Amino acid sequence: MSEVTTAADNQSGDALENLLTENRRFAPSVEFAANAIIHGDEYSKANADRPAFWADQSRELLSWSKPFTKTLDWSNPPFATWFEDGEINAAYNALDRHVEAGNGDRVAIYFEGEPGDTRTYTYAQLTEEVKKAANAFETLGLIKGDRVAVYLPMIPEAVITLLACARIGAIHSVVFGGFSADALRSRVDDAQAKLVITADGTFRRGKPSSLKPAVDEALSAPGHSVQNVVVVKRNGQDVNWVEGRDVWWEDTVGTASTEHTAVGHPAEHPLFILYTSGTTGKPKGILHTTGGYLTQTAYTHRAVFDLHPETDVFWCTADVGWVTGHSYVTYAPLINGATQVMYEGTPDSPHQGRFWEIVQKYKVSILYTAPTAIRTFMKWGEDIPAKYDLSSIRLLGSVGEPINPEAWMWYRRVIGGDKAPIVDTWWQTETGAIMIAPLPGVTSAKPGSAQVPMPGIAVDVVDELGASVAHGHGGYLVIREPWPAMLRGIWGDNERYKETYWSRFDGMYFAGDGAKWDEDGDVWLLGRVDDVMNISGHRLSTTEIESALVSHPSVAEAAVVGAADETTGQAVVAFVILRGSAAEDADIVTTLRNHVGHEIGPIAKPKTILVVPELPKTRSGKIMRRLLKDVAEGRAVGDSSTLADNTVMNQIAESLRK
Ligand code: WTA
């Protein structure tokens, strides 16, 4: 595998010390603990026989059309199967069964559009919509096992599409709406998608923002697998139309029958592919299957968020383009019969109080968001949330990146009224569901630490050689035993699956994160130890952005690092060597930023691009990103003795002074 920095490299020494001497504790209130879904010791029993624990959860939380008799098969590692001989339908579990149980009138989704339009779907109504979409997709020729690329904004049709695919056994592959046409095309090609579901566009900060043109561009070159493009009318923009290929959602789904019977699919039938950045330029299609994924997402949602479906209003602010929008918007809340809020827009549109206005309006009781958003709210000032009634909030969640204790304390005090427990949840696209988090009615919360492995999950921290480290020490985060929602592979690339996750340490899943046990045995996440960056909780690969930069004719070489950033956690900083006369072009930095935006998507645009004469390389030609990170973070440059040319760092410093 590629150069691995030590976990401690990712956080400056002082910051780490501060974190680990954190001694504030927030025990659940007596009242919270008394009413909590999980209030006793769930760990001993679960960890004594993990597969048995998950089998119990699965039977309790899901309705199987054919009950399973086998639990875990790990005879061919690292390929696991869970509940293999059972059959289950994800959409039936998320919808029909709640209606059959008499809860059809319960609100499933309160949708709030960016311009302020709203829609409410009860479970009965959402079930009908999904049945219609399933029928419409089948009419377009979609059959079980086919892949569907989904390129939609945060509107109810996104959830409807995913559940309709799951219902008929088609495999969805969501591509985040902020990704470019090129990114969409490479994902369509990799999965050989037959259908694309998109919208004319969405709204961003009060203005229409388009999606359909990117689909047209992606499919403009021949040789793709797409037969039809279904287009939701959302912002009313004019769109280009390809006769015979494009169909309006309202003409197909809108006119379809509301009768559709869900049949069970094998537990290991693929549910979805979701592409995520790895350490190479090529995104990995993370493959999830049905039974295990639904079991762990449902269990963790109930246990970690203490979900009381009759009374709670849950709001996960993640976009459906990321795994959090799959597990904790589309699947778990509906499987658990929750009422949830779905919001299309950004937190600052039309004003910086929008989130709090939504909390007040829908009486949100559980809010799940990302540290980057929390730090932004802190910057905007606490007088903004103070204008709204946030008294409905009883639990707060955090995901996507480490939450610094200062942000944690602010979140608790200002948003949580100094009483709502905070659950910091560590997991990944690959893990499918939450792996490390406090249990809010049990755990004494500690600001900044994700704390405890979930019941039934075997997390460990190991040293370079794979030996467990003692409490008080750091190393690499690994998972020692298979878990129900684990990825089943990388789409079409079993070798890469083994190589990426299972080759670093024998018999263990290597997560790519540095971590430390503190003296109490709580886990602290220390950031990535590979070439993956985390920008506002979104994963981006340094190599992918470097490839985008060098694909521009003005760039000879490029190196990208994730530099610490107060708000976004990390920010993309690129070092480029220009070709020929490009250095005289006054707009070159803007041109290159836009080029990256076009190649990958706006989220990948470097915050800073520094033009340099050379890049620091080892004798074997490997770029020493660690040294560039020192420059980008304004630190003294660390040990550069392995450089092929040890004057390079001086040359870079000299050029940046100019
Ligand atoms: C990081 C998002 C610290 C981590 C669900 C991981 C976190 C990557 C946390 C996965 C957390 C996620 N504390 N770091 N609570 N949650 N991460 O695949 O580096 O988009 O490997 O999944 O985000 O990002 P992904």
TrEMBL record:
The EC category is ligase
Q: Which cofactor does it need?
A: Mg(2+)
Example GO molecular function: metal ion binding
Catalyses: acetate + ATP + CoA = acetyl-CoA + AMP + diphosphate
Sequence positions that bind ATP: 400-402, 424-429, 513, 528, 539
Record-listed E.C. numbers: 6.2.1.1
Q: A Gene Ontology biological process annotation?
A: acetyl-CoA biosynthetic process from acetate
For Mg(2+), which residues are the binding ones?
A: 550, 552, 555
For this chain, the Swiss-Prot or TrEMBL PTM comment says:
Acetylated. Deacetylation by the SIR2-homolog deacetylase activates the enzyme.
Give all N6-acetyllysine modified positions.
622
Q: Where is the AMP-binding enzyme C-terminal domain?
A: 544-622
Taking every annotated instance into account, which residue ranges of this chain make up the domain AMP-dependent synthetase/ligase? 101-491
Superkingdom: Bacteria
Occurrences of domain Acetyl-coenzyme A synthetase N-terminal (ranges): 43-94
Q: Which residues bind CoA?
A: 204-207, 324, 536
Task: Supply the alphabetized keyword list.
Answer: Acetylation, ATP-binding, Ligase, Magnesium, Metal-binding, Nucleotide-binding
- Enumerate the HAMAP family for this protein: Ac_CoA_synth (MF_01123)
Physiological role: Catalyzes the conversion of acetate into acetyl-CoA (AcCoA), an essential intermediate at the junction of anabolic and catabolic pathways. AcsA undergoes a two-step reaction. In the first half reaction, AcsA combines acetate with ATP to form acetyl-adenylate (AcAMP) intermediate. In the second half reaction, it can then transfer the acetyl group from AcAMP to the sulfhydryl group of CoA, forming the product AcCoA.
What family name appears in the similarity comment? Belongs to the ATP-dependent AMP-binding enzyme family.
Q: Which PANTHER family match?
A: ACETYL-COENZYME A SYNTHETASE, ACETYL-COENZYME A SYNTHETASE 1
Protein's name in the database: Acetyl-coenzyme A synthetase
Q: Which gene encodes it?
A: acs
